[in-house]
Amino acid sequence: MSLSTQRVILAALAISAAVVGMWAALLPVSFYSDFPLPERRWVSTLGPYNEHLIRDVGFLYLALLVLTVCVLRRPTASAVRMTGGAWLIFNSGHFLWHMLHLEMFPLIDKVGNAAALGGVLVLSILLLLPGRRSGAAVGSQG
Question: Range of 12's domain?
């Protein structure tokens, strides 16, 4: 995989982390009531409001955002893999839990959950694949 492809993947994960992280950390009631869209309500469907849990999830996403942006700015083979590993640990557990708890959602939200969570899971895995490096693009650390 080329460095430019890895950068696109890192950017996509960073955007995801920024949106979810800022929303959950700063506006937990809105995140609970309206994520991913007001008419979809993926979080509130799952149980009672818990401000502590929602803010913690938001700050976890923001921590992943910091890691991802740092690696996006200065990618090395080992840093890209480390970031992919961190995202993979989070996304695999997140994906599995949600896939086992879809029964209360209508079909469109089941598909939306699977697509959204499966998409970031696949991106995480892709960062673990060996990369093709062009000479000066990335240091020889790896």
Answer: 3-126
Q: For 60-85, how does the pLDDT look when each residue is reduced to its tens digit (9 = 90+)?
A: 999 999 999 999 999 999 999 999 99
Any alpha helices (H) in the chain, and if so which ranges?
A: 3-26, 28-34, 51-73, 77-99, 107-126
Query: Has residue 21 been placed in a domain?
Result: yes
Residue 137 included in any domain: no
Residue type, 2: S
For residue 2, list its beta bridge partners.
132
Indicate the number of domains in the chain.
1
Report yes or no on 23 lying in a domain.
yes
pTM of the model as a whole: 0.88
pLDDT per residue over 84-106, tens digit each?
A: 999 999 999 999 999 999 999 99
